[in-house]
Amino acid sequence: MSAGERSKIRFVSEGEAAIHYAIGHSPSVYDGIRLGSILLICDAGGGTTDIGIYKVRSVSPLYLEEVARPRCRIAGGVFVNEAARKHIKYQLRGSARLDNEECIVNAVREFERTAKRMFKGSEINSLVKVDSSGQSDESRNIHRGRLRIPRAKMMSFFDPLIKLVAQELQDTLVSSGALVVDKIILVGGFAESEYVYSELKTWANKRGLELAKPDGVLSKAISHGALTWHLESGVQLRVAKMHYGAETDLDYVAQDPEIHDRRTFQNILGQWRVRHGWNTIVSKNSRIRIGEEHAACFHHEFGQNDSFIVEMELYAYRWEEPPAFFKTKDGGLVDGFVHLGTVKANLTQCFEAAPYCIAPSGKKYKRLDYQICLSFDEIEISARLRWKTNKSYKYGEATIAYDV
Ligand SMILES: Nc1ncnc2c1ncn2[C@@H]1O[C@H](COP(=O)(O)OP(=O)(O)OP(=O)(O)O)[C@@H](O)[C@H]1O
Ligand SMILES: [Mg+2]
Fold first, then answer.
1. What pTM did the predictor assign?
2. What residues does the ion ligand 2 have nearby, CB within 5 Å?
3. Which of the residues 29, 234, 344, 371 has the least number of beta carbons within 10 Å of its own beta carbon?
4. Average pLDDT, whole number, for the chain?
């Protein structure tokens, strides 16, 4: 793919695309949504149920911000088929004509196509064609080639999965703490089942929660929503999805509990410093123009024998307020930070142009000032270091990282 083509590709999260679809397709979803609304999107699919929480930053055009960690649980429509398969297999066992893998596979396919999709929870029996010759076998509950599955049995296929989805919703609501969810939006193929939807609706009503699903085909919500998202937001400025920044050293302050037992080092001036401090260059949600550079200043004192190759690690932070340090005291990455790349520059020329200073220890050093510049296009972030020489800037090599 050429660079030009690549720059036309834009990514949207499944959750965000699903909300665009849901809001665009249904008054019941759209109703009551206003600036600041907190929306929980629950995509109950085949194998997994995925949940995300978004805040409405603008209603028209719709702009959403993800405000909590997405969650995922193994639960969805395929497990209903697994339970049905066990039951069908049990019912057919011992039958001279029907107790074989081919018949069972066909019967489960029929179940997927018909009984599963039609089940409302009110019918006495659901019927699944198991025998194309149309014979009856009342001992197996087969009537004219169709296996009767009683309501309670059908429910037993669905209920454990519905419970898992409800439990995941409950856990998400509890763990989202201060965020009060205004509306739960349900999408995904599993939620397309009338039975599943009505059970989840009852669950939500009991708890005073608003739950809605868009009209139309829920399993296509994401692909359609991605298009709507693209068409609606195509002309907007970009908004930084995360905080972007790099490491900075901080003064060692013994009384500060955050700093207290971190490893310290002495710089050339004899000052005690700690590593792994966080310095934001571009804040989450700030408006960014494509191609515009955002710079932040850094400095470092170099001795004569130091290496002048500077390497800086770039990180992004997902959630609301970045902490003071991006690494824990034992050196692990703090939850929410993502490594983006390493920017490098050779500051030899910069060093040569700078005047010497004398440290209290008598050592000669130079203080070099440089900047990290970040710029954004639709899908990538590029970063480079720059420093001043006389009147112009000199740039180090650029590093490209994909936005995540
Ligand atoms: N009307 C319906 N009634 C019951 N189940 C349905 C209905 N329509 C689709 N499903 C079920 O939804 C599931 C597929 O949903 P969907 O297309 O959202 O999943 P997916 O995105 O492929 O899976 P995943 O998100 O787990 O990767 C299948 O198990 C299918 O049987
Ligand atoms: Mg899916």
1. 0.67
2. 45
3. 234
4. 88
